[in-house]
Predict the structure.
Amino acid sequence: MCKHLAVRPISVWDSEYGCAPFVLKTASIPADILVRLRSNLCLWGEPEAYSGKGRPKKHGSKFKLNESTTWSDAESVLELDDPKLQRVRVSLWKNLHFRKAAARPMLLLRVERLNAQGHLRLLKPLWLAWVGEEMPSIEEVWRLYLRRFTVEHWYRFLKQRLHWTVPKLGTPKQCERWSDLMPFMTWELWLAPDIVTDNPLPWQKSLDNLTPGRVAQAMGGVFALIGTPALPPKPRGKSPGWEAGKKRHRKNRCPIVKKTVTRPRKEASVAV
């Protein structure tokens, strides 16, 4: 799908995808990658020129993110003022790679927040890697990752408030249908603040600008007015049972996979 787009897309990924297998498996996709890296990773630089003896080297000097003694000189360092983050320093290194992905070089970015005196405000910097074609300017590229935090909060809202992972559905099709409803529910909550009345819990304060969570809390009155296409609840009492002549279809069940743990054998004690 990426090859049919008018502009080459840029994908933003969390630190769980900052590894060699992901970089290798996405090599054939015509899209650029901006991925966060864990601070304990170890990268490798370009190898030295071939000496003519033995097998050519694949890796150069080691670059460990949490050991500044292994760092080479940065290609460029830029300090700028951001309206929200204030003073920011961005350092750039080129031609680094994972040990198992030497064929996929990448650019490394280190983003630090500074105070008015030029010292670090946060001890833990943000490490980013660019994999793909020509990278945007340093002033722009690190800001692209800030959009990722909005996506993370949305996923948390789906799981905690809209109960995305609560239903135990039986088939993949049912799971896909339930997941497809999540964006629709989000848009409904985003567009509905003007038609609901705040319904705070006893320990909550009233709000003028309702958040999506507070809108979901007040949607009961809207549902009572517009009704629902669902069938009414069945009355309590003795069940009428299965209808005569109605065919039964057994549910498809998947085989149970049991993982066994291999424990080392105890050595037989030798009597002395």
